[in-house]
């Protein structure tokens, strides 16, 4: 396949390099990634200014924009390619549970939801065994063209930070959840203005069996199908009842 690869940790990130080296053994690869770390960029597109694309010495392309920018431009004719699929990663850290709402890695994959084959977001739950995650990605790509999921569905993959031979297997999971994030940390900039650091991610709230948190904790690769349809269908009847006689 012709793969478009991106990430949110930036064009020089270690995880990206490992992913490309593994997948280019079987597929044609084009890399478009942010020119810097844009973790937490979520699905944002740069609409207030033009974005600049720069070729890199290793054949990659960088964009001074978001992960979603990279994929949006890559599948909309900026380069003379027609990608079959988007693979995003390898993220430097987990994208489990509520993390997917903020993740630029997941957002880059989600931007590829229009293509012929289901996009994949790939994260290493740690920062050591990138080769393990890259091998898992290559393994999952086998038969990807035959994967039949609902339209615009992507898969979110989280790999334990273990040697490849220590991975126990792969599980299909649902998203767990976290508690509210840690308290924001206040500081002052060099000019004396008040500023804040966003606090750390919240502790695990739902890491029960069947969740992505539980699978990774037990040494399994977690694979979670995700959809851009964020409507809470189970609440429709309640909202309909609540709206009665409002107007």
Q: Would you mind describing this structure in some detail?
A:
With 247 residues, the chain is an alpha/beta fold. The chain has a single domain (2-177, 205-243), classed as Survival protein SurE-like phosphatase/nucleotidase (Stationary-phase Survival Protein Sure Homolog, Chain: A, 3-Layer(aba) Sandwich). It has six helices and 13 strands. β5 (85-92), α3 and β6 (120-125) form a beta-alpha-beta unit. α1 (14-23) packs parallel to α4 and α2 packs parallel to α3 (104-111). The protein is globular, with a radius of gyration of 19 Å.
User: What are the segments in which pLDDT stays under 50 over at least 5 consecutive residues?
Assistant: none
Helix-strand string:
EHEEEHEHEHEEEEEEHEH
Number of helices: 6
* Strand order, largest beta sheet: 3-4-2-1-5-6-7-13-8
Fraction in helix = 10-25%
CATH homologous superfamily heading: Survival protein SurE-like phosphatase/nucleotidase
> Which second-level CATH architecture applies?
3-Layer(aba) Sandwich
Shape: globular
Could you tell me the CATH topology label: Stationary-phase Survival Protein Sure Homolog, Chain: A
Class, according to the CATH hierarchy?
Alpha Beta
Number of E-state strands: 13
